[in-house]
Specification:
The chain is α+β, with helices and mostly antiparallel strands and 149 residues long. It is built from four helices and eleven strands, in the order βββββαβββββααβα. The protein has helices at 42-48, 96-99, 103-106, 126-148; strands spanning 5-9, 12-16, 21-22, 27-32, 35-40, 51-56, 62-64, 69-75, 79-83, 88-93, 115-118. The relative contact order is 0.20.
Amino acid sequence: MSADLVFMMGNYEARIPRDRRYSDNHLWLQPHDGAYRVGFTAYSVRLLQDVYFLNWDIEPNTAVRKKQEIGQIESSKAVSSLYAPADGTIHEFNEHLYDDPSAVNTGGYSDGWLYRFSTSEEFLTAEQYVEKLESVWEETQRVVKGQLN
């Protein structure tokens, strides 16, 4: 397997594994049991910082539309809505995160997966995702700094 890509967020390295695909809303999707396991990228976890709470608005085995709100996440930065990365079906949620969502922070590309999802949509490669991050990084910094000041 080839080495992870690295996107530099200031002094912070956001690792982007090449063994999965990526959505525009900063989720990774890795094939698993005939569907995808979905989780937050290192980039999104860094922007969120410590995750304290996850809440889902839908039940398992629910068909969803791209950009449909499916839940909320609370972190040290904010409470944010979570949206489906594409049209498809969310089959199950990672039950371990209900009791301890800290795995999102510590095991984001492994135990910190959010849900299992099936879709026929295509997603970005690791290289395409890093290109996207590079194209929006300057604006992201302005927004983050604006929120902090």
